[in-house]
Amino acid sequence: MTSYLHSGSTDVDVDTVREALEHRDPFPGTAGFAGEVDGKLVRDVLGRVPLFLERDLDWETSNPLAPADWAFSPAELEEPELVSAGTVVDSDGPNRVWRLPDLAPEPEHDRALEAVDRAIRTAIDAVRSENADTAVAFSGGVDSALVAELLDAPLYVAGFPDSHDVEAARTAADAMGRELTVVELTHDDLERAVPQVARATGRTNAMDVQIALPLYLTGERAAADGFDRLAVGQGADELFGGYEKVVRLDHRVEAETVRGAVREQILTLADQLPRDVLALEAAGVDPVAPLLHDAVVEAALALPTELLVTDEARKYGFRRVAAEYLPETVVHREKKAVQYGSLAARELDRLARQAGYKRRMDDHVTKYVRSLLESSS
Fold it and tell me: What is the distance between the alpha carbons of residues 52 and 4, in angstroms, rounded to a whole number?
C-alpha cells in the first residue's frame, strides 16, 4: 500500500513509523512526521508537522483518505480541522495512539545534562546528514545561538531598525565571531506579507499573524539568497522551562509543580507549530527545528526541577549545556517574544490604527488583518 509522509527537520522512513505504530513508541528517533501510512493518517506525538481533515466528516460513509478530505495545508480544504497530535485516523475515525510519556526525573544532574548535550548533538547531526543549504533564524538568544553555533550556518534576523531583536542579534553575532544578515522590516513588508501569512496558516487572529510575520519575512529573504531550509531554535522554552509562568506557577498554568507546568507547555506545541511551519513553507524554505528532535524531547522530560528553573534563571540546565559552546554573554541573554522583539506587533498595530481600526474597537488588529486578506483576494 502506498504511503505519503511529510517529515520534520530530517526525512522519516515509513518503516520507522510502522514500528512506532506497532509498539506505540512516541519517540522513534525522528523530528516529527505526518501523512498517510498503510491506509491510515498519522501525526506524531508533538504535532511537529501539520495535518488537516475536513471538519465533521461522516465516518459511516466517508473515506478519510480521499484526496478531498485531508491535506497538509488548511488552504486545500473547505473547512479544515487540525488533527490532534499523536493521532491515527482510519475508517473508524481519529484515535490517539501516542502520548507524551511521564518520565521520572534523573537524580544525577551531570548525567541528565550529558543526556541533553548528547541529544542536541544527535539532532544537529541528523540535520547535517541532509543534503540541503541551511540558514538560521537568529534572534541573539541562547536557543537560536546554540543551533547556529552547532550547525555553523549563516545567520538571519528580521526586525524594524530600532528593534530589540536586531540589536541583540548583532551583539550576539559579534560575540560569536559570526556575520549576520539583517532583514530590515518596513510597513510595506507587513502589508504585503499579512495576507500571505494569513492565507498560508489559515489564521487571521492578531497574535498568530504577528508571530508568523518575522518568520515569514526571514524565510523569504533566506530563500531569495538560495537557501533551502531555515533552522530555528523553537521548542527550547517549552522543553526546558523558559516561561515565567512555569517558574511562578501562576494562573496561566494548571499544574502544581514546575515539571507539570513544563509538560503543559510542551503540549501546546501541537497548536503552535503548524502556524510557524506553514508560514516558513509559504516563504519558500523548509523549517528545521533541531531542538524538537525526539532525542532532545526525551532528554528534556527527564530533567529534574533544579535543572529547569532556579531563583536566578530559567532554562537553567539548557543554559549549562549551551555554556560549553557559546560566550557567557549569549548564554545568559534574555530574549523577547518574536512579535515584540522584532516590533512586528507594534507596527502592525500602528498600521491598523492608521487604516481606521482604532484600539477602542474590539480586536482591532485582527479586523485589520482580515481586511487586508479580503482586499488581496
Answer: 14
| This prediction's pTM | 0.93
Nearest-10 Cα torsion for 329, 334, 340, 341: 10
User: Residue 43, Cβ neighbours under 10 Å: how many?
Assistant: 27
- Going 32 to 36 to 38 to 44, the CA torsion angle's sign is positive
Task: Give domain limits for the chain.
Answer: 4-96, 109-344
pLDDT per residue as tens digits for the range 304-358: 999 999 888 899 999 999 999 999 999 998 888 899 999 999 999 999 999 999 9
Whether 160 has a pLDDT exceeding 90, the answer reads yes
Q: Name, in order, each residue with C-beta under 8 angstroms of 45's C-beta and a sequence gap of 6 or more.
A: 26, 27, 85, 86, 98, 99, 100
Q: Name the CATH architecture for the domain at 109-344.
A: 3-Layer(aba) Sandwich (3.40)
Residue of 217, 156, 160 whose CA lies nearest to 186: 160
How crowded is residue 282: how many other Cβ atoms within 10 Å of its Cβ?
20
In degrees and rounded to multiples of 5, residue 275 shows phi and psi of -60, -50
